[in-house]
Design brief:
123 residues; alpha+beta; 3-stranded antiparallel β-sheet; two-stranded antiparallel sheet; 3 helices; 5 strands; 32% helix; 40% strand; rod-shaped
């Protein structure tokens, strides 16, 4: 009988896990750790100057305005001949053009905040 007990105990010892195997198995099957590792991977992939607002941007802003003002003006001259003078203008027009090139960039000042600079070039 004594030999059978020793054989049974030897079989149970071979089924036991080592500490390293138990830790590896626990980490492999922990869903919370898997989710956290995915979040860390996503955060690492999102780290680049564009997401931090550090990439310079250039904007072109243009505007055009056209106004046509047809007018009829009657002027009193206080003279006997002719007492009033009429002036008509059917081609009074104004056109305005404007354009702006804007370059923006941001600097991070550590924990003191975010500084933004805007440079404007008007034509």
């Amino acid at each position: 009988m004594g030999a059978g007990v020793i054989f049974n105990a030897a079989a149970q010892v071979s089924d036991m896990l080592t500490l390293e195997e138990a830790i590896a198995l626990g980490l492999e099957n922990n869903q919370g750790l898997k989710i956290r590792q995915r979040q860390v991977d996503i955060a690492a992939n999102n780290v680049f100057p564009g997401n931090a607002g550090l990439v310079p941007t250039i904007s072109l802003i243009a505007n055009a305005d056209y106004q046509r003002n047809d007018t009829d003006v009657v002027i009193r001259t206080f003279a006997k001949s002719p007492p009033v003078v009429s002036v008509s203008d059917g081609a009074a027009a104004t056109t305005t053009y404007s354009a702006v090139v804007q370059a923006d960039y941001s600097l991070l000042g550590g924990f003191s905040g975010r500084y933004q600079s805007n440079d404007y070039y008007h034509f």
